[in-house]
Amino acid sequence: MRGKHPSTTLILTERDIARLVDMQAAIRIVRKAFLAMGRGKTLMPPKVYLPVSRAGDFRAMPAYLKDSKACGMKWVNVHPENPRFGLPTVMAVILINDPDTGFPLAVLEGRLITKLRTAAAAAVAAKTLARPKSHRVSLIGCGAQADAQIEALSLLLPVTEVNVWGLRSRQAAAFCKRMKRMLPRIAFRVWPTIQECILQAQVLVTLTPSRHPIVKSHWLPAGVHINAVGADAPGKQELEPGILKQAMIVVDEYVQAMHAGEINVPIARKLLKRKDIHASLGEILAGTKPLRRSQKSWTVFDSTGLAIHDVALAAEIVQRAKQRGIGRSVRLLSPKAFARQ
What we know:
The chain has 11 helices and 18 strands. It starts with 8 loop residues before the first strand and ends in an 11-residue tail after the last strand. It is globular. It folds into 2 domains: 9-113 and 307-338, 2-Layer Sandwich (ornithine cyclodeaminase, domain 1), CATH 3.30.1780; 120-302, NAD(P)-binding Rossmann-like Domain (Rossmann fold, 3-Layer(aba) Sandwich), CATH 3.40.50.720. It has 341 residues and is of the alpha/beta class. It has helices spanning 14-20, 23-38, 111-129, 146-156, 169-182, 194-198, 241-246, 254-260, 264-268, 281-286, 307-324; strands at 9-12, 42-43, 48-53, 56-65, 70-78, 90-97, 104-109, 136-140, 161-165, 187-190, 203-206, 211-215, 225-228, 237-239, 248-251, 277-280, 299-302, 328-330. Strand 9, helix 5 (169-182) and strand 10 form a beta-alpha-beta unit. The strands form 3 sheets. Strands 1, 2, 3, 4, 5, 6, 7 and 18 form an 8-stranded mixed sheet that branches. It has an 8-stranded parallel sheet with strand order 10-9-8-11-13-17-15-16. Strands 12-14 form a two-stranded parallel sheet.
């Protein structure tokens, strides 16, 4: 085994990562990871929450993909008041390890990877669950994740129109102006109320940190698909529970969704039960659970964010970085630790 193991750890910054991966690659990698999960070829303990401060929390997200031998963990924080101090609300690092020795192969900035994989997962869900010719998207919330969501959806659906509601109308208008430059073939429009925005939807994306339902069932058009992305911690919810009672619910992962996804509050209040969840997206993609929907029925994808996606994407980025000589290698362990190799 002498000489076969690395002795240095690769460090990749956000700028490095932006040079190494794009949304199309993220979608391909995320879909493959969903399939692996649906076929039972991943290990992913539920996300661990560490609420050390009233101002925010930390989350530990380990995962292993058996076929690619991608192994690692994301350590991420969510502190909503951080912009007051000139810091991002969300920060993260991802550690990639050799599963056979445990050696730390790489440390990556995790915010861009999180953004890419979240949008990619939602786009894969919409491609799978929405009606095939869906071309009108309504976006509730236009914060840091919004541009990636629209970019990813536009790669998998024939999107021609995006309707936007934001808490601050000026921010929503600026978002639409920026996205129009990025995606000139798509029409962007700001709506003054959530209801008016939702009424336009064939695909609805919710991206707020709300702790009370802001989407009402009587606003929803027939056949709409909902990507519920905002709820990512216990107590958060964006959809009226009646929507979930009537819709076909698909989760990214059962335990995480029941603990911290869109369904967490209705589950805690016994308005929903696990049997009300139709399937995980991986099960549908792998063919182990059927996809049943009518033209008029609602579908909901409950997105909580999966460590398998972070790790799969990070492992691919590390491989590309080594091929292209991008990043900085450092020796984390003393040379004496390798004396017996």
